[in-house]
């Protein structure tokens, strides 16, 4: 009993550490910066190939 | 902490008076705000200082001869807050950093709490069924290892807030929360060390998690409220195309280099960088950002164009009439920011109540601890902890500001800008609406409403001919013909004959336009007569009907002739109408109504009605094009549409309802929780859930003010 606990609890702590690290990594990469726009991104028009960014300077909202 | 270097965006200065609005990171509660107000207000030369808790904004007016901006910002940083600029990139980056850090703190607290819960279940089960002492000790140590980073990383903003409060010798809600957290943590650690007694590690982590979630929701609302003015501020480009005087070549220069009278070129689809006078013959301008008007508007030469609008037609030239820092858009952003940094009266009351509460809570906690010490010393500590945690007045201090912020961003979507923080409350409680006629219920500029031509002459041709004759005229009625000018109809020899009209040659024929009424007669024998009128806005009828349905009494105040006013009143079904009023008379009518106990909303065009607007309980000004920034009003109607008005009243009423709900809930919860916790019926973890759920409920409820009601209507 004690032997398995000795192994499993540190293991759970390690997994906790890994989860926290992964979450921090994702936050720093901007994964949670915008939770609304990306879901609609696929539905929007592609930008014009001429790179004419002056057409509508304001972001779609 | 260092002060970020200043640039031109931070502050504005005029006639020795400086005005600055900035974000101060780290404001959590009314006490932080109060200490900033006090510290900055005590500086010699500061005239006005406002701090808003919800959007963390600080707004200062000061005498530039006595004080530098650096001193003010230094004072704020010395208190432990970090001043950051509002406008543009830096503000967005500050928001992003704040959001990411908050997410990380929540993430650690959430993962930690889950893990702790598992170990704690094992400990509880072990206590009931018997557990190897060595395993229990092992589990407790594991809990300690997880809780430590949760408390000192995730809980850092709470602990830091409490420390700042203590340093300033005030009692904020962070103090009670931190006291509870630290007591629970150190007692549990001590029990772990000596291997006896209860541990509360799970309660500590859970309490932090729930508090952080509440703060995160509140932070998102704050960021949203700031977006409206940030969107406006960001709309202006950083450079402009200036046309060189010598050779007429367009060169790109930064906005700051522009001078009055410079000629600018604005290509199709580009944003107009500054306020200017149109030099091209005609232009199609999309002013949706400024006025909410979705269709591009046609402008003619010499019209004033507001910076921030988009050129929807072909390339145009523009003469700079106002420097970039003074443009309509900047003026508007500054006014908005000033409004957002103000604290509504309702919020001040709630803050004071919260601080009163904290003192009582600490007293009650000590008394409860003392009594339990006499009855059952083992239960004294958990009971004290529960009282501390359960009664934190977080909900109380969040109730109002969160709702007002949500309502402001909803109103902005309706085209109504909140220029003064109290305006929402005021709008909700009015029972009388006083309306101006010209420019408010009517379009405000003469339009041609009827054309009668002799013997079947084409009305369009008549109109174009008349427009050509009137092109150079300064007569007010000539404005009505402006929009009908056409390049093919020109008149180069138009001559004004005093008291009679204008005479000139168009397409080889002699024409005369003038008395009686507006009649166009030609040597060829053709003639046409035009009826010019100031027509009602298309949605005036619907808007007044909706306002009446909301139970508001409508009063029409106008300086116009009796018949004209009565006609409008009859069409719109307004029972009370007063005509022929001078501004002083309007003011008198308003005062009489107020003396009779009515609360009045005054709706006017904002420029001529200044004094009346100022005297009303709440005022709404109709903004139009480049004049919006000069309109004085608590609320600013950006759209040329009255339909938003009844909706705005609905939003305000709902917001007030929500605020009252929130305050009632927070008060009842806190009063009810104290006896339960004091009698020892509430373990600390239940107290943590109860208190956090209560403030989360309040913040979420407040966010409701920002959404449309499910039914879509209101009383």
Average pLDDT confidence of chain B is 78
Oligomer: heterodimer
Calculate the terminal CA-CA distance of chain B, rounded to whole Å. Answer: 51 Å
Structural class of chain A: mainly alpha
Strand count, sense and barrel status of the largest sheet of chain B are: 7 strands, mixed
For the record, give the distance between the C-alpha atoms at the N and C termini of chain A, rounded to a whole number: 59 Å
Count of DSSP-assigned helices of chain A: 2
- Overall number of domains of chain B: 5
Report the strand count of chain A: 0
Number of strands of chain B: 27
- % residues in beta strands of chain B: 15-25%
Mean pLDDT of chain A: 73
Chain pair forming the biggest interface: A-B, 21 and 28 residues
Account of the protein in words:
The complex is a heterodimer of chains A (61) and B (715). Chain A has 61 residues and is mainly α. Chain A has a domain at 1-25. In chain A, 52% of the residues lie in helices and 0% in strands. Chain A contains two helices and no strands. Chain A has helices at residues 2-28, 37-41. The termini of chain A are far apart. The model of chain A is unreliable at 48-61 (pLDDT under 50). Chain B has 715 residues and is an alpha+beta fold. Chain B has five domains: 11-85, Alpha-Beta Plaits (2-Layer Sandwich); 94-230 and 337-404 and 657-706, no CATH class; 239-326, Calcium-transporting ATPase, cytoplasmic transduction domain A (Distorted Sandwich); 414-444 and 537-653, Rossmann fold; 447-533, 3-Layer(aba) Sandwich (Calcium-transporting ATPase, cytoplasmic domain N). Chain B has a seven-stranded mixed sheet with strand order 15-27-26-25-16-23-24, sandwiched between helices. Chain B has a six-stranded antiparallel sheet with strand order 7-6-8-14-9-12, with no helix packed on it. Chain B starts with 10 loop residues before the first strand and ends in a 12-residue tail after the last helix. Classes of the chains: A mainly alpha (61), B alpha+beta (715).
């Amino acid at each position: 009993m004690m032997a398995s606990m000795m192994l499993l609890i540190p293991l759970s702590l390690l997994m906790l550490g890994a989860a926290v690290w992964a979450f921090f990594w994702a936050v720093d990469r901007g994964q949670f910066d915008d939770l609304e726009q990306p879901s609609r991104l696929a539905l929007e028009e592609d930008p014009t190939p001429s790179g004419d960014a002056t057409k509508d300077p304001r972001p779609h909202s | 902490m260092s002060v970020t270097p200043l640039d031109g965006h931070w502050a504005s200065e005029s006639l020795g008076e400086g005005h600055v609005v900035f974000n101060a990171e780290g404001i959590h509660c009314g006490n932080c705000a109060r200490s900033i107000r006090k510290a900055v207000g005590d500086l010699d030369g500061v005239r006005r200082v406002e701090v808003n808790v919800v959007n963390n904004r600080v707004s200062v007016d000061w005498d530039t001869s006595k004080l530098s901006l650096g001193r003010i910002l230094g004072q704020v940083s010395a208190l432990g807050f970090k001043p950051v600029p509002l406008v543009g990139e830096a503000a967005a980056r500050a928001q992003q950093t704040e959001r990411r850090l908050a997410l990380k703190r929540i993430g650690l607290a959430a993962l930690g709490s889950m893990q702790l819960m598992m170990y704690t279940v094992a400990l509880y089960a072990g206590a009931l069924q018997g557990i190897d002492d060595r395993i229990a000790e092992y589990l407790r140590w594991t809990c300690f290892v997880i809780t430590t980073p949760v408390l000192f990383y995730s809980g850092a903003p709470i602990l830091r807030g409490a420390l700042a409060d203590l340093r300033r010798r005030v009692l904020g809600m962070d103090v009670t929360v931190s006291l509870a957290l630290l007591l629970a943590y150190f007692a549990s650690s001590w029990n772990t060390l000596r291997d006896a007694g209860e541990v509360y590690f799970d309660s500590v982590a859970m309490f932090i998690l729930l508090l952080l979630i509440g703060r995160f929701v509140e932070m998102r609302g704050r960021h949203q409220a700031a977006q409206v003015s940030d969107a406006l501020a960001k709309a202006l480009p950083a450079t402009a195309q200036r046309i060189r005087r010598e050779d007429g070549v367009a060169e790109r220069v930064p906005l700051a280099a522009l001078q009055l009278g410079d000629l600018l070129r604005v290509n199709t689809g580009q944003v107009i960088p500054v306020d200017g006078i149109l030099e091209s013959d005609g232009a199609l301008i999309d002013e949706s950002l400024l006025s909410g008007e979705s269709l591009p508007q046609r402008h003619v030469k010499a019209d004033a164009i507001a910076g921030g609008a988009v050129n929807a037609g072909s390339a145009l030239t523009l003469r700079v009439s106002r420097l970039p820092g003074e443009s309509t858009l900047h003026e508007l952003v500054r006014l908005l920011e000033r409004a957002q940094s103000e604290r509504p009266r309702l919020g001040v009351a709630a803050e004071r109540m919260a601080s009163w509460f904290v003192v009582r809570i600490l007293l009650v906690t000590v008394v409860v601890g003392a009594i339990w010490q006499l009855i059952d010393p083992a239960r004294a500590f958990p009971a004290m902890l529960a009282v501390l945690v359960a009664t934190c007045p977080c909900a109380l201090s969040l109730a109002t500001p969160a709702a007002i912020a949500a309502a402001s961003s909803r109103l902005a979507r309706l085209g109504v800008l909140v220029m003064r923080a109290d305006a929402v409350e005021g709008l909700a409680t009015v029972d009388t609406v006083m309306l101006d006629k010209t420019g408010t219920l009517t379009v405000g500029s003469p339009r041609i409403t009827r054309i009668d031509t002799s013997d079947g002459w084409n009305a369009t041709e008549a109109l174009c001919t008349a427009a050509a004759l009137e092109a150079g005229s300064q007569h007010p009625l000539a404005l009505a013909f402006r929009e009908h000018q056409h390049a093919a109809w020109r008149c180069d020899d138009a001559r004004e004959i005093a008291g009679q009209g204008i005479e000139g040659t168009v397409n080889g024929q002699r024409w005369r336009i003038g008395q009686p009424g507006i009649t166009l007669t030609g040597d060829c024998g053709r003639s046409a007569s035009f009826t010019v009128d100031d027509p009602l806005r298309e949605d005036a009828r619907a808007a007044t009907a909706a306002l009446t349905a909301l139970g508001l009494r409508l009063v029409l105040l106008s300086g116009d002739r009796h018949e004209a006013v009565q006609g409008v009143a009859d069409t719109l079904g307004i029972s009370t109408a007063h005509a022929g009023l001078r501004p002083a008379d309007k003011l008198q009518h308003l005062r009489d109504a107020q003396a009779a106990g009515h609360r009045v909303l005054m709706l006017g065009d904002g420029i001529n009605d200044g004094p009346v607007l100022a005297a009303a309980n709440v005022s709404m000004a109709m903004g139009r094009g480049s004049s919006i920034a000069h309109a004085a009003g608590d609320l600013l109607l950006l759209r040329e549409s009255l339909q938003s008005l009844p909706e705005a009243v609905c939003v305000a009423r709902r917001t007030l309802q929500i605020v009252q709900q929130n305050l009632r809930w927070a008060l009842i919860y806190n009063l009810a929780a104290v006896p339960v916790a004091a009698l020892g019926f509430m373990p600390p973890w239940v107290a943590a859930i109860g208190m956090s759920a209560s403030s989360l409920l309040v913040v979420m409820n407040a966010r409701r003010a920002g959404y449309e009601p499910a039914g879509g209507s209101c009383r």
